Amino acid sequence: MHGVTTPDMNLTHHFLIAMPSMADTNFARTLTYIAEHNDGGALGVIVNRPIDMSLATLFERVDMALESDRYAQQPVYFGGPVQTDRGFVLHRPAGDWSATLKVNDEVGLTSSKDILQAMATEGCDLDVLVTLGYAGWDAGQLEQELADNAWLTAPADLSIVFDLPAEERFAAAMQLLGIDFANLSESAGHA
């Protein structure tokens, strides 16, 4: 018999909410959606850090004509510090694309160009968040960061990602836990 064991933690389809003490500037005040978490590590995308690029500009850069205006003005997001030259599309419904990490029946994370080709046409009806880069953790790394109180976690509510403006997502995720971020501040009491 072993000593005390803890159940395997699986944060797939959860939010990671950066604590005020988060020292890594890549993740300070970020809300990250975890698309996969298993024994090998974790993978997710930051969903509240838009960069100064619209999807229209991104489509121009990959030489694709954007026939539909539906996505043109949506911002591209900094998804994390890994592979920042590659695009990742967090979307619902999950659909059937050539390179999709299917999170569950509702949502997927796709890195293949076929989803962009679909978005470029009038008939595409996906909720999307497009990032450059992703966040990745090696085996045990995320668990250690959680033990070090770097993150709060909450089951993901995709309406926060797809229905709220980027600047409201962090606070909305905190509200899932019934927490006001101001109450967590390390310098509470300063106006």
Automatic annotation (TrEMBL):
Gene3D superfamilies, sorted: VC0467-like (3.40.1740.10)
Domain of life according to the entry: Bacteria
InterPro entries: AlgH-like (IPR003774)
GO cellular component, one term: cytosol
A matching Pfam family: DUF179
PANTHER family for this protein: UNCHARACTERIZED PROTEIN YQGE, UPF0301 PROTEIN YQGE
NCBIfam families (alphabetical): PRK00228.1-1
Protein family per UniProt: Belongs to the UPF0301 (AlgH) family.
Protein's name according to its UniProt entry: UPF0301 protein FHP89_18130
Organism (species): Denitromonas halophila
